[in-house]
Amino acid sequence: MTALTGAVVPRKYLPVLVTAGLFVAMFIAGGARYEGFFSTQVVLNVFIDNAFLLVVAVGMTFVILTGGIDLSVGSVVALATMVAAVLLNAGWPPLAVIVVVLLIGAGLGLGMGCMIHFFEIQPFIATLAGMFLARGLCYTIGTDSIPITDPAFTAAAQTQIGLGGGLWISPSVLIAVAVVAIAAYVLHQTRFGRTVYATGGNEQSARLMGLPVARTKLGVYTISGFCSALGGLLLAFYMLSGYGLHAVGLELDAIAAVVIGGTLLTGGSGFLIGTVLGVLILGLIQTVISFQGTLSSWWTKIFVGLLLGVFILLQRVITTRKK
Amino acid sequence: MNRRLLWPAVVLALLLLLNLFFTPGFLSIEVKDGHFYGSLIDILRFGAPLVLVSLGMTLVIATGGIDLSVGSVVAISGALACLAISQGTGVLAAVALAVAVALVLGAFNGFLVAVIGIQPIVATLILMVAGRGLAQLITDGQIITVTDAGFKVIGGGYLFMLPFGILLALVVLAATVFLTRRLALGLLIESVGGNAEASRLAGLRSRGILITVYAFAALCAGIAGVMVASNVSSADGNNAGLWIELDAILAVVIGGTLLTGGRFSLGGTVLGALVIQTLTTTIYSIGVPPETTLLFKALVVAAVCLLQSAAFRARAFPRRERPVTQPVQDTTEVAR
Hints:
By secondary structure, chain A is mainly alpha-helical. Helix content of chain A is 75%, strand content 3%. Chain B is globular.
């Protein structure tokens, strides 16, 4: 079976196809089991509820493709909601707030990139320090949840963009889809994107080929920081509050989405569309559990863990057969 | 003194001095109610679970791997022990059950890494995510409280005037040092970490060693889980051992063991774990607002990691840099 499909489609697309197949299968199974599940709005709701995760996972994909990892994303998301809430309450105009938050995120990412590249500290440890730093900054700003009442933010939270036929999405979904489109273009069509893959494939070879490895590594962590801050803004739209305990453990969800999407954690191989599918599958698991009603929330973790296991085994099978 | 132990020891000494400055009686140890009492004893006592988890983590990292699942194993073993005791099982049987399950989970991690050949960070990520759910499944989302006096001894009791947890950690430390430094096991672990394929060709059973190491890490986490649950007389599937894997990895790195594997320092790890625990205690005792705890921790972690980075030292103190302070693999490059 694997050999057969391998002859028809290039093997590198196989993990993504399996992920897509699983998404469709889960959707059909859910539709057969639960009343009212089998609708386009359910899929759109998955997008609406997970727009921020999608943006964060896009940034994580860049980092993982270079063979690194970014543990700081969840904390940066929380910091973004916190800074946005405080600045808005201080009377700043929304546009200025958004610019400042995005700059903070990108700056933090660049700082971690510098630690990793110039001082040769492992990505795991450097971004762990970043995780403590961002979460610590949140608590220093305040330990309580700060509500956001700014009209522009509440408008972004409550606007429903009709797609005809009673279907709707939120503005956040549009932003997330735009981020995915831009990221896909950058990753697959530009020189920077090719260097990301080359660096992940073999950093030393990439350097010997004269590729700008340093700039690329700093670039991916900056992108991840920027995406986390943007994800934080989307979460602020969604929750209408800033809170230091927002998005605890989000980095695990983002990494899980990237892995389920077929990107190898060793770097150099994977597609952005896989990450999108990975986020959708995580969202669909939550939807199924809420439709089921009798399952407790911890089953989400068990299912995500099981899925991770299945996908990693599958990747392993595929990469072994290649030899 | 071993150069790799210098920086963590300096940081630990500075932290203790800082405490002494703010709390003059910080280093004093007195005898109260027939056992030792004092801030230093408290650091050791509350640091015991972290020391245990870090010891297991050191050996995993020495093989070039990493174990993200220890926090979940801590939660699972604590939950199992409390559940069994609350249903009338004897303390010893309950603890044995919890530790045995931890061993099985560790062997599962080892199987994924050694036999299937999955990257350690991913293989243990599975149990990290699913294990937290399993722990909550065992406790049914509740906090199980137990009132067994025998169980309380493990994390809160005393033996020979010292907290039992410290003695337990010391026993495990002694056993680990004996196994790895007096027997060949340590050499074999370093050899697998240096180059797994070369070790296999040299006739080592890399797979068996890898599985042993992951099982050992989970065993340590299991004991730590029982200790944590016993100390608070309850099991919380959601919060027990939360983020302890990150603290343990930090402790190992601060202790001078490289994440790339091939070399390890148990003494460094113990120092690293004590640095982290002392940092937490310091934050409370010198009156840093609890909100900024993480900020403080981030700064110390960044400082220690930068001090250990050869690239940073070369830039920051160019004249004091000597080839001796470079890690071994770098000296070959310098020589070339």
